[in-house]
Automatic annotation (TrEMBL):
Active site: C122, H263, N293
Organism: Actinocrispum wychmicini
Record's catalysed reaction(s): malonyl-[ACP] + acetyl-CoA + H(+) = 3-oxobutanoyl-[ACP] + CO2 + CoA
Oligomeric form and interacting partners: Homodimer.
Family note: Belongs to the thiolase-like superfamily. FabH family.
Name the record gives this protein: Beta-ketoacyl-[acyl-carrier-protein] synthase III
A cellular component term, taken from the record's GO annotations: cytoplasm
Length: 339
């Protein structure tokens, strides 16, 4: 069986983006705060990643709590109070079982709608866009709330200064509805891929069915771990190739892209991908300085923060990379959204 999966799709009955919203917890951790806890510095973190601060949850505040806030903001932005489906992309659900999406739907007053979680780590939101587009194209849903939310501060090794510098907590959401390819907001093409050979690059090794936690034992490898350098190299290569693939499908040249809104893993990765694809640095949207790497929340939070610069009709390219390893891209025309 092939260990490398690449899926391409073009859709006739398209999904149209009609609302965005984001939420970050109020507690902020600056680089100076981290320098007080670890052998690190603001200069090291900023020069390697572009990050200045990140938000983290307080004890008792969960991924589901953030998702409800972001979902409410997106529904308000779309001017709707009902959907047929809630999809939550996350790697840090409220519980290993059940999925968090039903509780989030309940928290939003969306009782009895279909609701499920989707896991593709930092690529989860782009996978979610494609999955929702599939539901809508198949006639299984007319309007969907897609949320990306993660609280990596709850799974980081307290001794890992690299991860503490990179990751932040947050949630972002979009509302998608059935529409036509010619409409503002239309999602026009997707590229999705994975390579399970590199499962160990980004992992929480213990705590699943392969390495279950046993009573009385808490192994060291139940924390999140990332092989940063190897991930960096894969991220640049896979994101650039995925972006180019989706541009080819939709018939845009790199210079046609008004905004590249990529997964905010590292500012240097975003600019390296822009460089390889041929997108000028001023067309690369960056908010990692304020929020860090928020995993599945990264792209919808960036879209929310970019609403001031994105103009209706802009050609927008979304590209992500994450654990699995996984990668994915989507091309869309930016809609006219209320402020
Ligand atoms: O979202 C999913 C995708 N994730 C990514 O795409 C992340 C990709 N990777 C990265 O962004 C980078 O690899 C990091 C920002 C995570 C790390 O940067 P790096 O330049 O690859 O550093 P490194 O891990 O290779 O470490 C280089 C040095 C090491 O010291 P020695 O062995 O050279 O003496 C580390 O111990 O930097 C040290 N180091 C730190 N120093 C100060 C690692 N973390 C820190 C820190 N402060 N926070």
């Amino acid at each position: 069986m092939a260990d490398h999966i690449v899926m391409h799709c073009m859709i006739d009955r398209v999904s149209v983006l009609c609302g965005v919203g984001g939420y970050v917890p109020s507690s902020v951790v600056t680089n100076a705060d981290l320098a007080g806890r670890f052998d690190t510095s603001d200069e090291w973190i900023r020069s390697r990643t572009g990050i200045r601060q990140r938000h983290v949850v307080r004890t008792g505040e969960s991924t589901g709590d953030l998702a409800v806030q972001a979902g409410a903001a997106a529904l308000k932005n779309a001017g709707v109070d009902s959907v047929d489906l809630v999809v939550l992309a996350t790697t840090t659900p409220d519980h290993p079982c059940p999925a968090t999406a039903p509780a989030v739907a309940r928290g939003l007053g969306l009782d009895h709608v279909a609701a499920f979680d989707l896991g593709a780590v930092c690529t989860g939101f782009v996978y979610g866009l494609a999955a929702v587009a599939g539901f809508i194209a198949a006639g299984l849903a007319e309007r969907v709330l897609l949320i990306g939310a993660d609280t990596f501060s709850t799974i980081l090794d307290p001794a890992d200064r690299g991860a503490a510098a990179v990751f932040g907590d947050g949630a972002g959401a979009v509302v998608l509805r059935r529409g036509d390819a010619g409409e503002l907001g239309a999602l026009l093409a997707f590229d999705l891929g994975s390579d399970g050979d590199f499962v160990d690059l980004i992992t929480v090794r213990a705590g699943g069915s392969k390495h279950p936690l046993t009573a009385g034992q808490v192994p060291d490898d139940h924390w999140f771990s990332m092989q940063g350098k190897a991930v960096y190299r894969h991220a640049v290569r896979r994101m650039a190739a995925s972006a180019q693939d989706v541009l080819r499908q939709v018939g845009w040249r790199a210079q046609d892209v008004d905004w590249f809104v990529g997964h905010q893993a590292n500012q240097r990765i975003l600019h390296a991908v822009g460089d390889q694809v041929g997108i000028a640095p001023e067309r690369v949207f960056v908010n990692i300085d304020q929020v860090g790497n928020t995993v599945a929340a990264s792209i919808p939070l960036a879209l929310t923060d970019a609403t001031g610069v994105l103009r209706p009709g802009d050609k927008v390219l979304l590209t992500a990379f994450g654990g699995g390893i996984t990668w994915g891209s989507a091309a869309l025309i930016w809609p006219a959204l209320p402020d």
